TrEMBL record:
The keyword Transcription applies. Belongs to the AfsR/DnrI/RedD regulatory family. InterPro entries: AfsR-DnrI-RedD_regulator, BTAD, OmpR/PhoB-type_DNA-bd, Sig_transdc_resp-reg_C-effctor, TPR-like_helical_dom_sf, WH-like_DNA-bd_sf. The lineage of its organism: Bacteria, Bacillati, Actinomycetota, Actinomycetes, Micromonosporales. It comes from Actinoplanes sandaracinus. This is AfsR/SARP family transcriptional regulator.
Amino acid sequence: MLSFNILGGLEVRIDGVECTPTAPKVRSVLALLLLRSNHTVSQESIFDWLWRGQAPRSAATTTQTYIYQLRALFERESAGSEQLLITRPTGYTLTIEDGQLDTIVFARMCAEGRALLERNKPGEASLKLAGALSLWRGRPLADICLDLEASPDIAHLEELHLRALELRIEADFRLGNQRELIAELRGLVVAHPMNEWFHARLISALNHCGRRAEALQAYHNLRQVLSAELGLDPTPEVQNLQRQVLTGNDVRLLAAA
């Protein structure tokens, strides 16, 4: 079976054996087609992706060559793949079946995990979401030399990744695994200093484990970051967490929406 992975470096595999193209521009075209799999990608979109608004006069012919090379790769490596990459009147469509692309598998597992959490099955939800997160090998398309910062497709995938993390942490909180989460949450607040949800979970986990001084320090760190970077205070919900830590009351957790 031909499969594709983009949650990390670009990978093309046939029955587990890697056959990823090596030519940089061919890899870049494939990356865009995978990001927008099962949707037609216009030639103009490919031009912008490859040449950032400075396409040469030969762009159309060159793009056709890259498409030919991809189609040849698919047909060589996987019998019956002639309908995988389809030429449309306005562009090209890479048709992907369920299970062939890691982003599709990831999204499906996240939806299943969220449904389990909504049915109050945190144990099963945690396992499902952890499985989804294990598909991530690094930043999407980390080895493609393009301005990925400007890509809304990459931003969307990274937002889904954060959401999956929040849901899995929520499931683990419901299981009473606060102590085990502290180290992970410390790392997350460093990686995402403006994410108040992660900070709130760290405060809650520390307080739950009887580490009130550290919980208050975690709140202080958040307040300092928000003040220095944005001139803001923590949200009323997070301020309420601090008051509850100070008074020794049970901390009301901010649930993942």
